[in-house]
Amino acid sequence: MKTAILFIIALFAFAGNSIITRYALLDNTIDPASFIWLRIVSGAIALWLLLSFLRRNVPKSQGHSVKGSWWGALTLSIYVIAFSYAYMVLETGFGALVLFAAVQLSMFGVNLAQGARVKFREWLGSAIALIGLGYLVAPSLQLPESWISVLLMITAGSAWGLYSLHGRGSATPLIDTTYNFTRAIALVSLALIWLLPNSLLSAKGIALAILSGAVTSGLGYAVWYLVLPRIQVSTAAIGQLSVPLIATAGGIVVADEQLSWRFIIAASLIIGGILVNVIRFRT
Protein backbone atom coordinates (compact mmCIF):
# COMPACT_ATOMS: atom_id res chain seq x y z
CA MET A 1 0.00 0.00 0.00
CA LYS A 2 2.84 2.40 0.86
CA THR A 3 4.52 1.76 -2.49
CA ALA A 4 1.25 2.26 -4.35
CA ILE A 5 0.66 5.61 -2.62
CA LEU A 6 4.20 6.81 -3.42
CA PHE A 7 3.76 5.64 -7.02
CA ILE A 8 0.59 7.70 -7.40
CA ILE A 9 2.27 10.73 -5.78
CA ALA A 10 5.13 10.53 -8.31
CA LEU A 11 2.74 10.37 -11.26
CA PHE A 12 0.80 13.38 -10.00
CA ALA A 13 4.12 15.21 -9.56
CA PHE A 14 4.97 14.60 -13.24
CA ALA A 15 1.56 15.87 -14.31
CA GLY A 16 1.89 18.76 -11.86
CA ASN A 17 4.97 20.01 -13.69
CA SER A 18 2.95 20.33 -16.89
CA ILE A 19 -0.02 21.96 -15.16
CA ILE A 20 2.03 24.44 -13.11
CA THR A 21 4.31 25.43 -15.99
CA ARG A 22 1.41 25.97 -18.39
CA TYR A 23 -0.57 27.93 -15.78
CA ALA A 24 2.36 30.19 -14.84
CA LEU A 25 3.35 31.02 -18.42
CA LEU A 26 -0.21 31.27 -19.74
CA ASP A 27 -1.08 34.00 -17.21
CA ASN A 28 2.20 35.86 -17.85
CA THR A 29 2.94 35.80 -14.13
CA ILE A 30 6.61 35.12 -14.89
CA ASP A 31 8.86 34.93 -17.94
CA PRO A 32 10.14 31.50 -19.06
CA ALA A 33 13.82 32.20 -18.30
CA SER A 34 13.13 33.23 -14.70
CA PHE A 35 10.72 30.31 -14.25
CA ILE A 36 13.35 27.84 -15.47
CA TRP A 37 16.11 29.28 -13.28
CA LEU A 38 13.94 29.34 -10.15
CA ARG A 39 12.70 25.81 -10.85
CA ILE A 40 16.24 24.40 -11.04
CA VAL A 41 17.54 26.36 -8.03
CA SER A 42 14.58 25.52 -5.79
CA GLY A 43 14.77 21.88 -6.92
CA ALA A 44 18.44 21.72 -5.97
CA ILE A 45 17.77 23.31 -2.58
CA ALA A 46 14.90 20.90 -1.85
CA LEU A 47 17.04 17.91 -2.82
CA TRP A 48 19.96 19.05 -0.65
CA LEU A 49 17.62 19.49 2.31
CA LEU A 50 16.13 16.03 1.71
CA LEU A 51 19.59 14.53 1.32
CA SER A 52 20.77 16.13 4.55
CA PHE A 53 17.71 14.78 6.35
CA LEU A 54 18.34 11.26 5.04
CA ARG A 55 22.13 11.39 5.21
CA ARG A 56 22.43 8.80 7.98
CA ASN A 57 20.68 6.24 5.75
CA VAL A 58 22.55 7.09 2.54
CA PRO A 59 25.88 5.45 1.61
CA LYS A 60 28.93 7.68 1.74
CA SER A 61 30.17 9.11 -1.52
CA GLN A 62 32.27 6.55 -3.41
CA GLY A 63 33.69 8.15 -6.52
CA HIS A 64 31.96 9.33 -9.66
CA SER A 65 28.90 7.04 -9.40
CA VAL A 66 27.43 8.98 -6.49
CA LYS A 67 28.18 12.50 -7.69
CA GLY A 68 26.03 12.75 -10.77
CA SER A 69 27.63 13.91 -14.03
CA TRP A 70 27.81 16.87 -16.36
CA TRP A 71 26.04 14.77 -19.01
CA GLY A 72 23.15 14.24 -16.61
CA ALA A 73 23.08 17.96 -15.82
CA LEU A 74 23.17 18.85 -19.54
CA THR A 75 20.26 16.61 -20.51
CA LEU A 76 18.30 17.80 -17.46
CA SER A 77 18.92 21.44 -18.46
CA ILE A 78 17.88 20.86 -22.08
CA TYR A 79 14.71 19.14 -20.87
CA VAL A 80 13.71 21.97 -18.50
CA ILE A 81 14.45 24.75 -21.01
CA ALA A 82 12.69 23.14 -23.98
CA PHE A 83 9.78 22.00 -21.77
CA SER A 84 9.08 25.50 -20.44
CA TYR A 85 9.30 27.34 -23.77
CA ALA A 86 7.09 24.71 -25.46
CA TYR A 87 4.36 25.34 -22.88
CA MET A 88 4.14 28.99 -23.87
CA VAL A 89 2.01 27.73 -26.78
CA LEU A 90 0.99 24.08 -26.30
CA GLU A 91 -2.00 23.06 -24.23
CA THR A 92 -1.31 21.07 -21.07
CA GLY A 93 -2.46 17.59 -22.11
CA PHE A 94 -1.22 18.00 -25.68
CA GLY A 95 2.24 18.92 -24.43
CA ALA A 96 2.37 16.07 -21.91
CA LEU A 97 1.34 13.54 -24.56
CA VAL A 98 4.02 14.74 -27.00
CA LEU A 99 6.55 14.74 -24.16
CA PHE A 100 5.97 11.15 -23.03
CA ALA A 101 5.68 9.83 -26.59
CA ALA A 102 9.08 11.40 -27.30
CA VAL A 103 10.49 9.90 -24.08
CA GLN A 104 9.40 6.38 -25.05
CA LEU A 105 10.51 6.68 -28.69
CA SER A 106 13.90 8.18 -27.80
CA MET A 107 14.64 5.39 -25.31
CA PHE A 108 13.60 2.84 -27.91
CA GLY A 109 15.86 4.51 -30.49
CA VAL A 110 18.88 4.55 -28.18
CA ASN A 111 18.45 0.87 -27.35
CA LEU A 112 18.21 0.12 -31.08
CA ALA A 113 21.35 2.17 -31.83
CA GLN A 114 23.23 0.28 -29.12
CA GLY A 115 22.50 -2.99 -30.89
CA ALA A 116 19.65 -4.18 -28.71
CA ARG A 117 17.57 -6.97 -30.17
CA VAL A 118 14.16 -5.58 -31.10
CA LYS A 119 11.11 -7.82 -31.16
CA PHE A 120 8.25 -7.53 -33.62
CA ARG A 121 5.83 -6.28 -30.93
CA GLU A 122 8.28 -3.49 -30.07
CA TRP A 123 8.46 -2.38 -33.72
CA LEU A 124 4.67 -2.58 -33.97
CA GLY A 125 4.09 -0.68 -30.74
CA SER A 126 6.52 2.08 -31.70
CA ALA A 127 4.94 2.39 -35.15
CA ILE A 128 1.45 2.74 -33.63
CA ALA A 129 2.69 5.35 -31.12
CA LEU A 130 4.46 7.29 -33.88
CA ILE A 131 1.30 7.31 -36.01
CA GLY A 132 -0.65 8.63 -33.02
CA LEU A 133 1.95 11.34 -32.39
CA GLY A 134 1.91 12.35 -36.06
CA TYR A 135 -1.90 12.55 -36.04
CA LEU A 136 -1.80 14.67 -32.89
CA VAL A 137 0.73 17.23 -34.10
CA ALA A 138 -0.41 17.43 -37.76
CA PRO A 139 -2.57 20.57 -37.29
CA SER A 140 0.28 22.33 -35.48
CA LEU A 141 2.61 21.90 -38.44
CA GLN A 142 0.55 24.48 -40.33
CA LEU A 143 1.39 27.20 -37.77
CA PRO A 144 5.08 28.18 -37.41
CA GLU A 145 4.74 29.07 -33.72
CA SER A 146 3.03 25.77 -32.83
CA TRP A 147 5.41 23.82 -35.05
CA ILE A 148 8.41 25.20 -33.16
CA SER A 149 6.72 24.44 -29.83
CA VAL A 150 6.08 20.84 -30.85
CA LEU A 151 9.75 20.47 -31.82
CA LEU A 152 10.76 21.94 -28.46
CA MET A 153 8.56 19.44 -26.60
CA ILE A 154 9.97 16.56 -28.65
CA THR A 155 13.44 17.84 -27.73
CA ALA A 156 12.40 17.96 -24.07
CA GLY A 157 11.10 14.39 -24.20
CA SER A 158 14.23 13.14 -25.95
CA ALA A 159 16.44 14.85 -23.36
CA TRP A 160 14.43 13.33 -20.50
CA GLY A 161 14.70 9.91 -22.15
CA LEU A 162 18.49 10.27 -22.37
CA TYR A 163 18.62 11.50 -18.77
CA SER A 164 16.61 8.48 -17.63
CA LEU A 165 18.78 6.03 -19.58
CA HIS A 166 21.95 7.61 -18.20
CA GLY A 167 20.77 7.36 -14.60
CA ARG A 168 19.10 3.95 -14.63
CA GLY A 169 22.25 2.21 -13.38
CA SER A 170 22.85 4.62 -10.51
CA ALA A 171 23.50 2.99 -7.15
CA THR A 172 22.55 6.18 -5.30
CA PRO A 173 19.99 7.97 -7.51
CA LEU A 174 19.04 10.59 -4.90
CA ILE A 175 22.64 11.78 -4.57
CA ASP A 176 23.16 11.73 -8.35
CA THR A 177 19.94 13.71 -8.90
CA THR A 178 20.98 16.27 -6.30
CA TYR A 179 24.36 16.82 -7.94
CA ASN A 180 22.77 16.95 -11.41
CA PHE A 181 20.36 19.67 -10.29
CA THR A 182 23.26 21.58 -8.71
CA ARG A 183 25.36 21.43 -11.88
CA ALA A 184 22.31 22.38 -13.95
CA ILE A 185 22.16 25.74 -12.14
CA ALA A 186 25.38 26.78 -13.88
CA LEU A 187 24.28 25.46 -17.28
CA VAL A 188 20.84 27.08 -17.13
CA SER A 189 22.36 30.37 -15.96
CA LEU A 190 24.79 30.41 -18.90
CA ALA A 191 22.06 29.53 -21.39
CA LEU A 192 19.56 32.13 -20.18
CA ILE A 193 21.69 34.99 -18.85
CA TRP A 194 21.06 37.11 -21.95
CA LEU A 195 17.30 36.96 -21.29
CA LEU A 196 17.40 38.00 -17.64
CA PRO A 197 17.35 41.80 -18.32
CA ASN A 198 13.82 41.31 -19.68
CA SER A 199 12.59 39.37 -16.65
CA LEU A 200 8.90 39.47 -15.74
CA LEU A 201 8.37 38.63 -12.09
CA SER A 202 5.40 38.55 -9.75
CA ALA A 203 4.79 36.95 -6.38
CA LYS A 204 2.44 34.43 -7.99
CA GLY A 205 4.93 33.52 -10.71
CA ILE A 206 7.80 33.10 -8.25
CA ALA A 207 5.63 30.91 -6.00
CA LEU A 208 4.61 28.69 -8.94
CA ALA A 209 8.24 28.31 -10.07
CA ILE A 210 9.36 27.33 -6.57
CA LEU A 211 6.42 24.93 -6.26
CA SER A 212 7.39 23.30 -9.56
CA GLY A 213 11.08 23.10 -8.64
CA ALA A 214 10.97 22.11 -4.99
CA VAL A 215 7.86 19.90 -4.93
CA THR A 216 6.86 18.46 -8.33
CA SER A 217 10.44 18.34 -9.65
CA GLY A 218 12.91 17.91 -6.78
CA LEU A 219 10.81 15.97 -4.28
CA GLY A 220 8.71 14.39 -7.05
CA TYR A 221 11.80 12.90 -8.70
CA ALA A 222 13.10 11.74 -5.31
CA VAL A 223 9.83 9.88 -4.67
CA TRP A 224 9.98 8.39 -8.16
CA TYR A 225 13.49 7.02 -7.62
CA LEU A 226 12.40 5.67 -4.25
CA VAL A 227 9.54 3.77 -5.87
CA LEU A 228 11.36 2.43 -8.95
CA PRO A 229 13.30 -0.38 -7.20
CA ARG A 230 10.04 -1.68 -5.72
CA ILE A 231 8.06 -2.05 -8.94
CA GLN A 232 8.53 -3.77 -12.28
CA VAL A 233 9.80 -1.78 -15.24
CA SER A 234 6.59 -2.51 -17.17
CA THR A 235 4.52 -1.17 -14.27
CA ALA A 236 6.56 2.04 -14.21
CA ALA A 237 6.19 2.48 -17.97
CA ILE A 238 2.46 1.82 -17.98
CA GLY A 239 1.92 4.10 -14.99
CA GLN A 240 3.49 7.04 -16.79
CA LEU A 241 0.87 6.70 -19.51
CA SER A 242 -1.64 8.20 -17.07
CA VAL A 243 0.34 11.44 -16.81
CA PRO A 244 -1.01 13.08 -20.02
CA LEU A 245 -4.55 12.26 -18.91
CA ILE A 246 -3.97 13.78 -15.45
CA ALA A 247 -2.34 16.81 -17.09
CA THR A 248 -5.29 17.19 -19.46
CA ALA A 249 -7.73 17.21 -16.55
CA GLY A 250 -5.58 19.82 -14.81
CA GLY A 251 -5.44 21.96 -17.95
CA ILE A 252 -9.22 21.90 -18.23
CA VAL A 253 -9.53 23.02 -14.61
CA VAL A 254 -6.82 25.70 -14.33
CA ALA A 255 -6.40 26.90 -17.93
CA ASP A 256 -9.96 26.50 -19.29
CA GLU A 257 -8.74 24.16 -22.04
CA GLN A 258 -11.02 21.92 -24.10
CA LEU A 259 -10.81 18.16 -24.61
CA SER A 260 -10.87 17.38 -28.36
CA TRP A 261 -11.60 14.19 -30.27
CA ARG A 262 -8.21 14.51 -31.96
CA PHE A 263 -6.52 14.33 -28.56
CA ILE A 264 -8.63 11.32 -27.51
CA ILE A 265 -7.85 9.40 -30.72
CA ALA A 266 -4.15 10.29 -30.63
CA ALA A 267 -3.91 9.42 -26.93
CA SER A 268 -5.51 6.04 -27.61
CA LEU A 269 -3.01 5.29 -30.39
CA ILE A 270 0.04 6.44 -28.43
CA ILE A 271 -0.96 4.71 -25.21
CA GLY A 272 -1.96 1.58 -27.13
CA GLY A 273 1.37 1.53 -28.96
CA ILE A 274 3.36 1.90 -25.76
CA LEU A 275 1.28 -0.83 -24.09
CA VAL A 276 2.15 -3.16 -26.96
CA ASN A 277 5.80 -2.34 -26.23
CA VAL A 278 5.78 -2.95 -22.50
CA ILE A 279 3.25 -5.73 -21.92
CA ARG A 280 4.42 -9.27 -22.45
CA PHE A 281 1.55 -11.48 -23.49
CA ARG A 282 1.65 -15.09 -22.31
CA THR A 283 0.32 -17.87 -24.44
Overview of the structural elements:
The chain is an all-alpha fold. The protein has one domain (2-278). 75% of the residues lie in helices and 0% in strands. The protein contains eleven helices and no strands. The chain has helices at residues 2-26, 32-54, 70-86, 92-113, 120-137, 144-167, 173-192, 203-227, 233-240, 243-254, 261-278. Helix 1 crosses helix 4 (92-113), helix 1 packs antiparallel against helix 8 and helix 3 (70-86) runs antiparallel to helix 6. The protein is globular and about 50 Å long. Mean pLDDT is 82; it is low at 61-65.
Q: What does this entry show, briefly?
A:
The chain has 283 residues and is mostly helical.
Keywords for this entry:
283 residues, mainly alpha
Give the helices and strands, then pairings.
Blueprint: H1 2-26, H2 32-54, H3 70-86, H4 92-113, H5 120-137, H6 144-167, H7 173-192, H8 203-227, H9 233-240, H10 243-254, H11 261-278
Helix pairs in contact: 1-4, 1-8, 1-10, 2-3, 2-7, 2-8, 3-6, 3-7, 4-5, 4-6, 4-10, 4-11, 5-11, 7-8
GO cellular component, one term: membrane
InterPro entries: AA-Vitamin_Transporters, EamA_dom, EmrE-like
Transmembrane segments: 34-54, 66-87, 93-111, 123-141, 147-165, 177-196, 208-228, 235-255, 261-279
